[in-house]
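JOB MANIFEST
job_type = single_chain_structure
chain_count = 1
residues = 111
[input]
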Amino acid sequence: MEENIITIDDFLKVDLRVATVVEAEEVPDSQKLLKLKVSLGSEERQIIAGIKKSYSPEDLVGKQIVVIANLQPRKLAGLESEGMLLATHDEEDSIVLVSPQKDVPAGNKLG
């Protein structure tokens, strides 16, 4: 387990922010992926996420989530993803998004 331990300096490099989902749609020819447009307050980003089995696009619009805002962009299914959302699984192995308990301004930093 010690190989998984990080320093506080490593943790402080991660930019966790609240984002509001502005748009959501299915990624064509994908069983798992949704394409999200999220607002971080002063900017909007596209995030490609493997949450389709647990969430429909309609479930997500207007929802606040937590994202890693400073992750290097990468391509998924030919689409650029400019961040990563945080999620876990419940007892039924459904995906559960991490979100604030009440609405806060989009772009707020966690920590």
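[summary]
The first helix runs from residue 8 to 12.
The longest strand covers residues 16-26.
exit_status = 0
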